[in-house]
Amino acid sequence: MSTARPGAVGPGRDTVRRALLVTGLATLLGVLIAVLPGHRGWFDVGVYHGAVGHWARGGDLYAWVTGNGYGFTYPPFAAVSMLPMAALAWYPTIVAHLVLTAAATVFLLVLLVDPLARAAGWSRWYAFALAALLLAGLNPVRDTISFGQVNLLLVALVYLDLWLLEHGKRAAGIGIGLAAAIKLTPAIFIGYLLVTRRWRAAATATGTSVAATAFAAVVAPGASRTFFTEALWDTERIGKLAYVSNQSLLGLVARLDRDHPDRRLWLALVAVTLAVWVVRSRRAVGAGNERAGFALTGITACLVSPITWVHHLVWLAPALVVAAASTLPWPPADRAARRRLRAGLAGYVVLSSGLVWVFANDPGTVAGFVGGNSYVFVSVGLLAFLPLGRSPDIVEQLGRKPCPDHRSRDRMIPVRQ
Fold this sequence. Notes:
Layout: H1 11-35, H2 43-56, H3 76-81, H4 90-120, H5 124-137, H6 139-147, H7 151-166, H8 174-182, H9 188-195, H10 199-219, H11 221-229, H12 249-256, H13 263-286, H14 290-304, H15 317-325, H16 335-353, H17 355-358, H18 366-372, H19 374-385, H20 392-398, E1 400-402, E2 412-414
Antiparallel strand pairs: 1-2
Helix pairs in contact: 1-5, 4-5, 4-7, 4-20, 7-8, 8-10, 9-10, 10-11, 13-14, 14-15, 14-19
Transmembrane segments: 20-39, 89-113, 125-141, 147-165, 172-195, 264-280, 292-309, 315-331, 343-360, 366-388
Main location: membrane
Protein name: Alpha-1,2-mannosyltransferase
């Protein structure tokens, strides 16, 4: 005798509904990406391919520029890592970039979403499919892929260390070190390890970064000398500070006065940002929420860096996952969780909308200033209000618990069964 309630949806019908929802969202997103303006023509991977190819043929790595004056801006170790590009034609280079980016994205989705899916009792395929679509909807992610940028690869390297820390591995720090040698911005995660007293991981990260940089100096002494004595200090190589795509604190300050940005105001904002980051990161790790600590550090990197193009804001994606985790179970029962959910959805919508581009040619009005800096304001909001508490269910799914000794090399230790 059947015990099903009248009108109840069986597992089969539920699966069909979810499949239709995922298919519909994927179709909608695909159409929007195809129709809306914003494809960047693989510009950045073109810079990497052109500069590294020129260098491999005996040219000066940092002297090569595109027709509109853009050149290679990363440290020499990045160029050494990209040397295989010199052996590839243009279209195979694009394919290789897409494959590597897809692999990095899969790793990040599994790392960040799987504990939530298990804690909430969701079907994994459904949770991953929705998370992948939501990730693809973010303007920074679309730009990263369309430009052919390395951002998601760097995030994956850094978040490899999140996995290593959560599992008590002695190699924690190696991913951050490699990312910092490829691009300077991820070096702030070494600072995170220091302020949260992960001395072993900080030493590993520093040693890895120094070793990779030294290796590049041996392989490419001329390029290393040029980068650290000339190219690193030439901000004009990167772009204009006041350009609307620069969604850093300095970009905001530069848009207040395009001719004479107030560097003292910027430094004051950076000091406040770093102070908030230190306090909140230590609280997050003290509460056993390593994921919030990493997310706060990615947000801070975007805010304090002199140049944070829209595509660099992929570092905000893990913060959105942390915010979503704080509202579980869904639908949230208490008022505070519902407020967090609405705020997180609002931030996601802004970051997906491409709102800053709407005001690219309207900088002189209040609406233009607010809209043109909207991604900066989302970053500030996430830094200040990202929930730091950790769901017990997620701790259980990770098989970890906070280490009671905050001075230990790792804050997370295995739960003894």
